Amino acid sequence: MNLIEELEISFPEALLANFSPVPLTLEGSTVLHQFFRFDWKAWKALDAAARAKVVAESLAVLKRLEHPNEEGPVQSALYSQLGHKGDLVFVHFRKNFAELNQVELALAQTPLYDYLTLVHSYVSVVEMGLYESSAKTWEAAAEAGFEPHTPEFDAVVQANLHRMATGMAPRLYPEVPPAPYLCFYPMNRRRGEEKNWYTVPFAERQKMMHEHGMVGRRYGDRVKQIITGSIGFDDWEWGVSLFAEDPIVFKKLIYEMRFDEVSAVYAEFGEFFLALRLDLDKLTGWTEGKL
Fold it and tell me: What predicted TM-score, i.e. pTM, was given to this entire model?
């Protein structure tokens, strides 16, 4: 049993009413998804030598972005996008937003960037929502004799969060998964007049999120799911990145989750993007119409 599972203990609503309605979260890597359209007309107007020079000079930068620490984990990845929404997708994971911005600037300096038009992007941070362990953490602070929202109470909470973050570091600071297919979409929790996620009591939200999470766990051997928080960073509240060997599993997972109450009643979804991993050594082939 891992650390999070040990803390996944439900508490009665009466007890939870004494604490914040906002679940605790752990944050990790900052994340940028970039979606580009490629200017095929301008590219084809170049002669073969010029095209080769653009790719060669750009690859030197792209490979440094992919492995910023030489042989370290993959922190940036390139994908060939399916459909009319764009042609190429870059996904970047970094330690902080300053590093993420530096990635944007470095990419913009490459010769290849002259043939790219940014059509969409998404800024977020890897997030682990602690709906089930929040209650345990708050209870520990209360049992120590501290009132909610006091400095002493917050110190106990922060100490527990630090302990959990240490145990969950590989999940908070992941490398880009090597799976060949990527599905990305943003989402919100509904704030409508009749159904509003943010007015539902904590205990009810906790129960729904637990049921929702159990569906995802059943697909854990086939899909790598990375949830990123974007409240205050982008137009939606969360981004969902799914990585898998077989893209059909995206359809099955998302469809099954639609039947959960948390999705059926309280979820709103943005555009979906599907892309195929493009090894950097195959970029020349891609620019010639071959994967």
Answer: 0.90
